[in-house]
Amino acid sequence: MRKFVLLAIAAASLAVTACNTVSGAGKDVKSAGEAVTNTAEDAKR
After folding, report:
1. Closest to 14 (Cα-Cα) out of 22, 26, 25
2. How far apart are CA 44 and CA 38, in angstroms?
3. What pLDDT shows up at residue 26?
4. 25: left (phi over 0), alpha (psi -120 to 50) or beta
5. pLDDT of residue 24
6. With 80 as the cut, is the pLDDT of residue 1 above it?
7. Torsion over CA: 15, 20, 23, 28 (sign)
8. What is the pLDDT of residues 3-40, one digit of tens each?
9. C-alpha–C-alpha distance, residues 7 and 35, integer Å
């Protein structure tokens, strides 16, 4: 039973970390897209 609890805690920790990583990657992609959009808008002028 104790091993199961430790395994569950470890799995929950990894899941939370993965969510933060994916969220951070999404923010990075979004800011890269905004930079490209801004550069394209500046080039039009």
Report:
1. 22
2. 10
3. 82
4. alpha
5. 78
6. no
7. negative
8. 888 888 888 877 777 777 777 778 888 988 898 888 88
9. 42
Q: How far apart are CA 1 and CA 3, in angstroms?
A: 5
The amino acid that residue 27 corresponds to is K
Assigned token pair, 10 = 């470890």
Q: What is the 3-state secondary structure (H, E, C) of the chain?
A: CHHHHHHHHHHHHHHHHHHHHHHHHHHHHHHHHHHHHHHHHHHHC
Residue 9: its pLDDT value, please? 84
